[in-house]
Design goal:
With about 190 residues, the chain is mainly alpha-helical. It is built from 7 helices and 5 strands. The protein has 2 domains: about 1-125, hpI Integrase, Chain A (Orthogonal Bundle), CATH 1.10.443; about 125-185, no CATH class.
């Protein structure tokens, strides 16, 4: 499912992914702009689109070619599905993920329901929806990304936040760095 690929390959929060509109996708530069988030107001029983909590959460994230290809396919598929329900989605204001029968915004808990369905259909080790973000950051560190790169990609306001959350990963990377250096010097 494209939604989970976006989370896994970008580190987006589910509320950020659910607030994406087609105008946020830059196919030429292979990136996505994040400057909205969703919030469910339980008192009003309404999904609200709002700006992120911090300015650093507004960011542009690069995408890989496969994700871009899947986004293009999803846009076509979404248009066809919505048109079947009499809804014209031929606008850049269209959200990427909506209810197919009404084109209304989804509450963020809907992502949890999707993940439960995936686990029911494909039993495997379970992670939470937010776990995709955590895994993305951990793998970035494993791949050699700097603290600053991960901080910017995740939209943290400062590197301390990134370090506080991912200290266990950075310690492993530091150990690996020492081993890499020793191997280099021994050659």
């Amino acid at each position: 499912m494209l939604f989970f690929r976006l989370l896994a390959f970008t580190g987006l929060r589910k509320s950020e992914a659910l607030s994406l509109q087609w105008k946020d996708i830059d196919y030429v530069n292979k990136s996505v702009k994040i400057y909205r988030t969703l919030f469910f107001d339980a008192r009003k029983h309404k999904v609200i689109v709002q700006t992120p909590k911090t300015a650093s959460s507004e960011r542009e994230i690069e995408l890989d070619a496969k994700t871009i290809s899947l986004l293009k396919s999803w846009r076509i598929d979404q248009r066809e599905r919505l048109l079947t329900n009499g809804i014209n989605s031929m606008t850049n204001e269209q959200f990427l993920f909506t209810q197919m029968k009404s084109n209304q915004l989804l509450i963020t808990n809907r992502a949890n329901d999707w993940l439960k369905w995936v686990y029911k259909k494909y039993p495997q080790k379970k992670i939470t929806v937010h776990g995709f973000r955590h895994t993305h950051a951990s793998l970035l560190f494993e791949a050699g990304a700097s603290i600053k790169e991960v901080q910017n990609r995740l939209g943290h306001s400062n590197s301390k936040t990134t370090l506080d959350i991912y200290t266990h990963v950075t310690k492993k990377v530091k150990r690996d760095t020492a081993e890499k250096f020793a191997k280099f010097m021994d050659n």
